[in-house]
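Cast an eye over this sequence plus tokens and explain the fold to me:
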Amino acid sequence: MKKNKQPLTQLQRQFLFVGCSATARELGVDASEYRHQIMKEELGIEHLSDCGRTEDFDNLMRRVFADRGEYSRAMDFVGGNVRRLQYLAVEAAKEIVRRGHSYLAGAHYYFDTDQSEPVAERVERAAIRYIAGVMIQMGASRETVDSLTFKLRRVDGWDDFSPKLLRSIVSALQCHLRRRR
């Protein structure tokens, strides 16, 4: 196992075992043999302890669902790293907005307008606008805050950015949260 890989969580292990069992039953093979076969074919590993909790897990689950013919569920595990980073970035930015939107440039716009919109939606819009501002300050985009915010509100809008950049953004947002504690 590479040192930078974190092992599967208990919930991921359980999800993998249940998925492998169901697929093996459909294919008429032993669940343990099936699990070991896909680990070897997909990741080149023999022990589950060598499986990482992000891309490795996504690769195994994509294979499990594809082998079962559930291609739409298999697609849930494509681009998982970007989706995970998107989730972390938005959640960190929402926390920043919730903790003290008064010091955020432009966030007041979302709190002073359209009071009929649920607070959770206004917080999410302010958080995405905040992320757009961070991305522009980091030099990741030459777009305006408004156009980048519009892009980031689309689920596939995040696909244009590398996981490396998204990790940097998540790191910056988490650093900001730590400073505000």
Notes: Residues 80-180 form one domain. The mean pLDDT is 83. The chain has two domains: 10-75, 80-180.
